[in-house]
Amino acid sequence: MDHAADAHRTDLMTITRYVLNEQSRHPESRGDFTILLNHIVLGCKFVCSAVNKACGSSKTHRSCRGDKCSGKLSTCVSIKGEEQKKLDVLSNEVFIKALVSSGRTCILVSEEDEEATIVEPSRRGRYCVVFDPLDGSSNIDCGVSIGTIFGIYMMKDDHEPNLDDVLQPGKNMLAAGYCMYGSSCTLVLSTGAGVNGFTLDPSLGEFILTHPDIKIPKKGKIYSVNEGNAKNWDGPTAKYVEKCKYPKDGSSAKSLRYIGSMVADVHRTLLYGGIFLYPADKKSPSGKLRVLYEVFPMSFLMEQAGGQAFTGKQRALDLVPKKIHERSPIFLGSYDDVEEIKALYAAEEKKE
Ligand SMILES: O=P(O)(O)OC[C@H]1O[C@](O)(COP(=O)(O)O)[C@@H](O)[C@@H]1O
User: Fold this and answer.
1) Which of 105, 94, 139 is nearest to 36 (CA)?
2) Domain membership flag for residue 217
3) Which among 91, 134, 249, 309 could bridge 332 via Cys, Cβ 3.0 to 4.6 Å?
4) 243 & 122 share domain
5) Complex ipTM, two decimals?
6) For 165-201, how does the pLDDT look when each residue is reduced to its tens digit (9 = 90+)?
7) CA gap 298, 310 in Å, rounded
8) Straight-line distance from the first to the last Cα atom of the chain, in angstroms, rounded to the nearest whole number
9) What residues make up the domain containing 204?
C-alpha cells in the first residue's frame, strides 16, 4: 500500500489532538481551551445521538421504541424512558450542564434561555460561551439537517461576570463553530487561524479532521434566501436578487438553493461558494437571525475562510450588540458576491 495513503488512514487527527497542537503554539496556554472544547464536543455528540435515536413521522428512524411516541422528531423520547422532552429543550440542558461542568466558563447565553446563565463561583473559568443548541428546530420533523452554533469569548479581566462580557463585537470572539446533524455529523471550527471541518466517526466516537483548511471560493454560483419575503425587501436586496437571476453583464444566472436551516445553508455556502442572505424586510426591520449565536459565529467562520459578512450597514463582526438576543440582517459568503451587495447598499446610502 502507498505509504502516504496508509498514514492518512492510520494517523488520525482528532479534534482534541488538533486543538492541543494549536494551543501548544501559545506557551502561556494552560489547556483550558482544550478542556472547554472537549465539553462542547461532548454536547454535540449527545445531540447527534439524540437526533438519530429520536422517533420521527417516517418509520425509518431506527430506535423508535417509545410507547408514548408522538410520531414527531421534535418531541422525542429522551434517554432512559424519562418524560418526553422537546429535542431543543433537551439539547439546551445538555449544553448548559456540559459547559458549567467544564469548570472553564463564567457566563453562558443560549437561544433557549431568556436570561444569561451566570456560572456559580466554585465552577467558574474565564470563557464566555454564546450558543444556539439546536438551530433550525422548526425543520426537525421533516429530517432536514439542523445544527448547534457556538461562539467563545474570553472574559476581559477578573471581575464578577456580567452581560458586558458577552455584549462584545464578534471580532473579539476567540473561536466559533457549528456542528451539523445531517447524513453525517460534521463539526466546523475556527480558533482564529483558518477553518477546519471534522466528521464524527461513529465507530470511534471521535471527530476526525476531514476538511482541513476550508477556503470559500472567491465567487459562487448559488444564492440562498427565503424568496417568500421578497415583496417586503428593501431596494438593494431586491436589486441584488434580480441581478442573481437575470445578470445583465453576460455572466450566468446564479441558482437559488434555500433549505431554511441556517447551519445547512451556511455549510453549503462555505464549501461550494455563493451567498446566504437573511435581510431586513418591512415586517422584520432587524431581520430574523440573532447576532450573538447565529450572525457572529457564522460571520467569524466566513471571514476565516476568506469570505465576508455584512449587515447592510457594516462589517458584521464590528457590530456591538446591546441585548443578548438582538437580531441583525446578514449577507455572508464568497468575497466577490458580498462585495456586490455592499456596493448596492453603498449606492443606496449615497442617494439618501
Ligand atoms: O423560515 P425562514 O424565515 O426562512 O427562516 C429560516 C431561518 O430560521 C432558522 O431556522 C432559525 O429559526 P429557529 O430559531 O426558529 O429555528 C435558521 O436556521 C434559518 O436560517
Assistant:
1) 105
2) no
3) 309
4) no
5) 0.96
6) 999 999 999 999 999 999 899 999 999 999 999 999 9
7) 11
8) 67
9) 3-211
